[in-house]
Write a structure and sequence with these properties.
This protein is α+β, with helices and mostly antiparallel strands. The chain is built from 10 helices and 6 strands. Helix content is 59%, strand content 11%. It is found in: Cell outer membrane.
């Protein structure tokens, strides 16, 4: 009962969950709004499924199951949990068993000889003990250590969650870039067909005496220029496939069979749920990790304060000791010792005060870092929301530019056949069409990339997978 009463005192400040100062609702965008907009509804954790791309969903599942960086982070988490177990062991009594035999001979001029022969002959000594000890956690030093260890486990958990969240975003981002490059390849090949048709047209007109060698040379140059784009695009496509293979812990080129064929570019839905601002601190691993670091630093202050006070340890042992094996275990061979041990720091040369000052400064740093992480999260979300809206508006304007350039190319080709314009007009319009088509593909990919970045900023997705 006395031990239970004594262990009720815990030094140091108790951790209080900090306020994130979350707004009641998301800030509204100013200016023109794009077609796809977020809504404050419960967020879909498996956000990659909203793209309705089975290949992307399967790839993310594969990365989450096999990625080596994630497995390394999981191993660090297991280490943290094991370390917590070793710290928590100090809360429980320790019991050890010792047994030994020795053949010895004492000095005839030294201390008393247990053999009774004044050091003139050797003797045997058989002994065995059960030794028990338990520190009374009067000031809560051990409890604060366990509290700090629990917080350190949370740090490791959220480190793993952060790695997983980054992997989800990186996988989706690389996949979107791959599809964009494949679409650019298709557009380039289509334009190459048009350029070759224009070349044949100019050669036919030259044979008829209508066109000049200049027209043919310009047409040949246009074909060569478009052909020069293909090797770079093909290399970029293969690089992205290899990047996805590495994320999935696969050898190079192992995913070419499933990814080499072009697929649709993942596109966002008209509306998508992003939850409410108050949920952000529970979702983002970096905020949760910063909070856990603050918790650990706060608990460490209690450990430093408890070091100023005496430690009380209850210890005892019981066993047998005999000089003859036949006597070992007999009632007269028994021995025991019980009693408390008290240790009190008297002079430490400022070490304890310095340690306490260090722990308090570390808590201040952790508190400031928490505020920085939260503030950075709000800025990141605000920036990505505006980027997502702007990317959509740019994509839609470029779609109109592509449509008008296609009309212009058809018109220029027809007028060239009729002799109304020279071949330079055809080349200029075709170059403009190819450039606008590539820009439109890049802008469409940028929209999806921005949406992936928004989901990452919101901290969603890692909850969909089993924890270690």
């Amino acid at each position: 009962m006395l031990a239970a009463l004594l262990t009720g005192c815990t030094l140091g400040p108790d951790f209080q969950q900090p306020d994130t100062h979350a707004p009641q609702q998301w800030d509204q965008l100013e200016g023109e709004h794009a077609p796809s907009q977020p809504v404050a509804e419960p967020m879909q954790l498996r956000w990659w499924d909203s793209f309705h791309d089975p290949r992307l969903s399967a790839l993310i599942e594969q990365v989450a199951a096999r990625n080596l960086d994630l497995q390394i982070a999981s191993a660090r988490l297991l280490q943290s949990r094991a370390l917590r177990s070793t710290v928590a062991a100090d809360q429980q009594p320790s019991v050890d068993a010792n047994a030994g035999y020795s053949r010895a001979r004492n000095s005839a001029e030294g201390l008393s000889d247990p053999s009774g022969n004044a050091g003139k002959s050797a003797f045997n000594l058989w002994q065995g003990d059960l030794v028990a000890g338990w520190e009374l956690d009067v000031w809560g030093r051990v409890r604060r250590q366990v509290e700090a260890a629990d917080a350190s486990v949370e740090v490791a958990e959220n480190d793993r969650n952060g790695v997983l969240l980054a992997l989800l975003a990186e996988t989706a981002g690389d996949y979107i870039q791959l599809r964009a490059v494949q679409h650019t390849l298709q557009v380039t090949e289509d334009n190459l067909k048009v350029a070759r048709h224009s070349l044949k047209l100019s050669e036919d007109r030259q044979a008829e005496g209508v066109a000049t060698r200049l027209d043919v040379a310009q047409a040949n140059a246009q074909v060569a220029l478009i052909e020069s784009r293909l090797p770079t695009l093909q290399a970029r496509r293969d690089d992205l496939i290899n990047a996805l293979s590495l994320l999935a812990a696969e050898p190079p080129r192992s995913l070419q069979g499933s990814l080499l064929q072009a697929g649709e570019l993942p596109a966002p839905q008209q509306t998508f749920a992003i939850g409410v601002p108050s949920e952000l601190a529970e979702r983002r691993p970096d905020i949760r990790q910063a909070q856990a670091r603050l918790h650990a630093a706060t608990a460490s202050i209690g450990v430093a304060k408890a070091d100023f006070y005496p430690r009380i340890r209850l210890s005892g042992n019981v066993g047998f000791q005999a000089m003859q094996l036949a006597d070992f275990g007999a009632w007269d061979a028994r021995r025991f010792a019980f009693g408390p041990q008290l240790s009190l720091p008297i002079f430490e040369g400022g070490r304890l005060k310095g340690t306490l000052a260090l722990r308090q400064a570390q808590q201040q740093e952790a508190a400031l870092n928490y505020r920085k992480v939260v503030l950075g999260a709000w800025h990141e979300i605000d920036d990505v929301l505006r980027l997502y809206n702007a990317s959509q508006l740019r994509r839609d304007r470029l779609a109109e530019a592509v449509r008008q350039n296609r009309i212009a190319l058809e018109t220029a080709q027809r007028q060239y056949v009729e002799g109304a314009v020279d071949f330079l007009n055809v080349l200029t319009v075709q170059s403009a069409l190819l450039a606008s088509e590539e820009q439109w593909i890049d802008s469409a990919a940028a929209v999806s990339q921005a949406l992936v970045g928004l989901y990452k900023a919101l901290g969603g997705g890692w909850q969909a997978f089993d924890k270690v």
